Amino acid sequence: MIRKLILSTVLLLSIVMVSCTQKANDTTTSKADSNTTVEQNKDNSNATKSNDTQSKSEPKVNKIKINIYSIDENSLEPDQSGNIEVNENSTLEDKLKQLSKALSEKKFDNLPIEVKSIDTVNGKKVATINLADANNKKWISKFQGSTGGSVTSGTLIENFLQSNNKSRGEWIDGVKFLYNNEKIEYEHVSNLSEVQYRN
Fold it and tell me: How many CB atoms lie within 10 A of CB 90?
């Protein structure tokens, strides 16, 4: 009888001890999980703060639209056929260079259009644009014929003056063109050799 009592007591004690040990492990695991969650929340919070700081330190880039014009062969009137976006804070020369590149690609078969200078003439900003040929004289075909010459000169003048574009920001007042760094002396594009001013 005493033996049974001792065995029962030992059995009960071992059950109690196993139960207590299991609870202690659960509590430790729960605390560890809790600490992990707190650390993850801190990391997420720091990441959010870091992203907020980055977005505050990077200046917002404002864009303006520069129109691309085509000239109707029948009416010889300009018609907006597209636009490019440029950084509003770019220099005027950089904006003109971006326009020159787009104009060359879209309207003039990639023929070189160079921004030579922007000068002040009688208080007005006048850009000098060079139409360059590498001895292949491809620009000359654009100067030929009354309609062809009018379309070429109208396209160049309208695009560089941006007269109908009110959202262009700071811009030039006038434009003058050269052909291979010399005055243009072709009958059908004679207005390219004189300074053309915005209305």
Answer: 17
Tally of CB atoms within 10 A around 190: 13
Looking at the fold, whether 25 and 78 belong to one and the same domain comes out as: no
193 vs 2, 67, 112, 187, CA distance in Å? 126, 23, 17, 10
Structural domains in the chain (count): 2
Alpha helices in 58-145, H assignment, sequence order:
92-107, 138-142
Instruction: State residue 61's pLDDT score.
Output: 79
DSSP bridge pairs for 114 = 130
Residues of the domain holding 96: 63-197
Mean pLDDT of the chain: 83
Same domain, 83 and 125: yes
Q: Are residues 133 and 99 in the same domain?
A: yes
Type of residue found at 176: K
* Chain segment 103-156, per-residue pLDDT in tens: 999 999 999 999 999 999 999 999 999 999 877 889 999 999 999 999 999 999
Tokens coding 178: 């050269």
Asked if residue 103 lies in contact with residue 159, where contact means CB atoms within 8 angstroms, the answer is: yes
Confidence of residue 195 (pLDDT cuts 50, 70, 90): very high
